Amino acid sequence: MRATVTDDDAARRPGRSLFTCGLVLVIILIGLANHGLSTALPTIAADLHATTWYSAPFTVHLACTMLGTVLGGIQADRRRPDTVLLMALPVFAGGLMLAGVAEGMAVLLVARAIQGLAGGALVVLLYVLIASVYPASRQPAAFAAVSFAWMLPGLLGPATSGLITEHASWRWIFLGLAPCVLLATLLLAPALRHTGTRSVKTEPGPRAGLPWAAFGAAGGLMMLTWAAHHWATSKPLLALLLGMSGLAVVMMSLRSLLPAGMLTATPGVPLMVCANGLLFGVSFGAESYVPLALTMLHHASPVVAGLPLSSGLVGWTIGSYWQSRLQNPDRERLISAGFAILAASLLGLALSLPGTAAIAWVCMWWCVAGCGAGIVVTSTELGITTLSSEAERGRNSSALLLAGSVGQAALVGLGGAVAATGPTGVLAWMWILLVIALLTGALVLRAARR
């Protein structure tokens, strides 16, 4: 007989403030490792004499993150998530240290694979543990802190990594983060001792194939990436065959990994997963090409072209914080409102880009877009926690994160094809994203009314 935890009991739980610090620190470390690699990779590839493998660290990490996300959700449902978390933390630290001492690209790829597996599992486990550590009244604030933690590396990571690479060594980007994992473990441990016991029995059937589906999605993604990078080489036929095969494998795998009813925005968990996937696709799909648009249309410098991204991070934080202050809101309607805000900002963005004062207007509109995105993402994260039973919380959390990755990869890739036609293509891409945001908001609102 498992004892239930009331809000009053959870409110008095020891170490909750320390857990919040550890939660934020782990997310920041995962983000800094990724942003640090993006900044330092030209130097890394030159030092390791592996420029032909330039994209491999990204591909391997993304594929293993998807795998770790799914496997972490499975383990969170089968075992005590606190125990699995304490096992994943040193593995992540080991991946950082291995990257820091890598003398060849093969070792770096192994290190990035370890970081992806452990990092994907850590995020899911932390999402699951939020429901155990915090009372229901405090969970919106906890997810707002998570959103802030994801944004901070985007603000600080590139500049910090650039300075470290230029004045010290790129190896310290990874080696400097490894001791912080120990600090995060010490911060998380006190609250984890009071998370209670679990007696979850794994159901047979659909769960049995999830690990294989996760391996299939990771492998299919790597096949697609290889095909995309070798399409224009001397092996176009092989690239086409591998690309089609990879796409088929990914699609079949996602049918098992994502909940049924997601594509039709069925109320409940499928709706949350659908909204999160499309939100990441729309927001990052626009974010990836806003600097390009300013550069192509107004010849903005890299620093000026990047200003809207910083304003978007500020808006994201504001939106996440605002929703955390609401008392028992209707999450479906809140998500619909977030998409409406995002659609309005995309409309303003598309109309402002050709103007003479585009940079100032784009910064303002992208701050508004970030606010809408922060409302949607934090609401879907909290919605998954609220709607999932304890036995399904890990799987549903991993589906939420996986949908975000898939939506981002799909729409950013589609945007590349549209934007490649020049300034007209960039503007057309903004209108396409506007339509997607409007349709998504309408779907969510329809589901909320049902």
Describe this structure in words.
It is a single chain. This protein is an all-alpha fold and 450 residues long. The protein is built from 18 helices and no strands. The chain is globular. Mean pLDDT is 82; it is low at 1-12 and 197-206.
User: How many beta strands in the DSSP annotation?
Assistant: 0
Helix content: over 70%
Please count the helical segments.
18
Which sequence of SSEs, written as H and E, runs from N to C?
HHHHHHHHHHHHHHHHHH
The helix/strand class is: mainly alpha
Question: Topology, please?
Answer:
Layout: H1 7-11, H2 16-47, H3 56-78, H4 81-100, H5 105-133, H6 139-167, H7 171-175, H8 178-192, H9 210-229, H10 236-257, H11 269-287, H12 290-298, H13 302-305, H14 307-324, H15 331-352, H16 358-387, H17 393-419, H18 423-449
Helix pairs in contact: 2-5, 2-6, 2-8, 3-5, 3-9, 3-17, 4-5, 4-8, 5-17, 6-14, 6-16, 9-10, 11-15, 11-16, 11-17, 11-18, 14-16, 15-16, 15-18, 16-17
In short:
Helices cover 79% and strands 0% of the residues. With 450 residues, the chain is an all-alpha fold.
Keywords:
450 residues, mainly alpha, 18 helices, disordered N terminus
